[in-house]
Amino acid sequence: MGILAVVFVRCYYKAMSKRTHDYEHEKYSPEVIRRYEDPEYARRAEAYEREQRRKLKKRSGKFGRGSDAPENSHLNKPPKRKNYRINKLKMVRNVLLILVVLAVAIFAYVLSITSNLDRVDTTGKNFAINSQVDKDLDGYRNIAILGSDARKGEGYDGSRTDAIIILSIRKRNGHIRMISVMRDSYLKMKGSSGDMVLDKLTHAHAFGGGVNTISALNRSLDLNIREYVVFNWKTVADTIDTLGGITVDVKSNEIGDLNHWGPETGENVGRPYKKIKKTGVQTIDGVQATTYCRIRKNSGGDKGRANRYKKVMAGVLKKSATSPWKFGELSKKVMPKVRTNMTQFQVATLLLRTPTFDMGKSISYPKSYYGGIIGGVWYAVPTTLNNNARWLHRKAFEQKNYTPSATLSGINDEIINTTGVSAGNN
Q1: Which of 29, 69, 357, 416 could lock 63 by a disulfide, CB 3.0 to 4.6 Å apart?
Q2: Quick one: 270 and 307 in the same domain?
């Protein structure tokens, strides 16, 4: 009986401990009453519960949603993810800002190196551009590149042009075509007295500078040229030497003329000529390249020389596109000797676009001509001016059924009446 009594008492106490107790007329569990009566016990219990919640939160983050986490992991919310979208937007914004700053800095630098140009203001000048031609060629930017025969120390005024190249840039895609025009082409221009005359194109610059030259081209070829650049042979040599030379293919019929006229070129530009000892593809320096442009007697005549101009020009453009760090040196050595009617902004944007240009096949004008002595002077007479204009616009500007302007047709008739030539021999 004693043992049964003891067991009964223990079971009763255990059962009663799960029931609420009357404390100050309110019912609380023994755990709550103990925490109320013993502050130290309450502090330790709260610390223990905090630690358990921390561990539970950590386990919930590890298992994630929908995993086999402990049963009570749902009591804590999953950890918040960082908003990576905001960070990506900030990164894109910062990259764009850096690119804008870099572009502005590069443009400012290129703009500064063009400040030394010998600029001519041609605002208000008449370039003899036909309105319909201007509309038809709106998608092209045509620039006249003129190589003057002015010697070292001489100015450009009154000088003739040995090299005439039209740099035709298609605005839509940056496609470039170079059109070399024979210096002895028999075209219409303003003479030294101001009257309109038929003469060699090379004389147009001597009569009236760059404006007269591009006006003659616009009038006789139906073009829309408004911009021109003039340089002399020393400028060519300095440019090529600064760029580290250009690569050309020297032919067997050219090497003799090169080494014969090279010393004279060296004297004109102020440094010695180095003899070329072999034919074939090779890198040539400034004096050699300048001589390469000038020779013609035994090297294809005027047409052969025009083709070499194009090769040298293409070599310079290619080297410039791959050596932009040379622009600063070019600014000091070359820019002051270059005359142009283009603004600093126009030159700077042209230089910046150089790496994006696509060099197409070059052509020579006129395609058909009569080369011979007329009135004691050798001329290259286009045969006919109308036919050459049709060919040029089809080849260079994709105008298949081109009709020459009334002005060009009038010059065509005047050339035939003056020379009696209507058929070519070249």
Answers
A1: 69
A2: yes
Is the confidence at residue 64, as pLDDT, over 60?
no
Q: What is the CATH number of the domain that holds 198?
A: 3.30.420
Q: Is the separation of the CB atoms in 219 and 188 below 8 Å?
A: yes
CA dihedral 29, 33, 39, 40 (to 10 degrees): -60
Q: What is the pLDDT of residues 95-130, one digit of tens each?
A: 888 877 777 776 676 666 677 788 899 999 999 999
Amino acid occupying residue 196:
M
Can you read off the two tokens belonging to residue 371?
């080369």
Structure tokens at 279: 């034919």
Specify whether the CB–CB gap between 302 and 182 falls below 8 A.
yes
Asked if the bond preceding 366 is cis, omega within 30° of 0, the reply is yes
Residues 148 and 206 in one domain: yes
State which residues form the domain around 252.
Answer: 234-335
Distance CA(191)–CA(328), nearest Å, equals 39
Cα Rg of the chain, angstroms? 43
Cα-based distances in Å from 182 to 37, 187, 326, 343: 115, 11, 31, 28
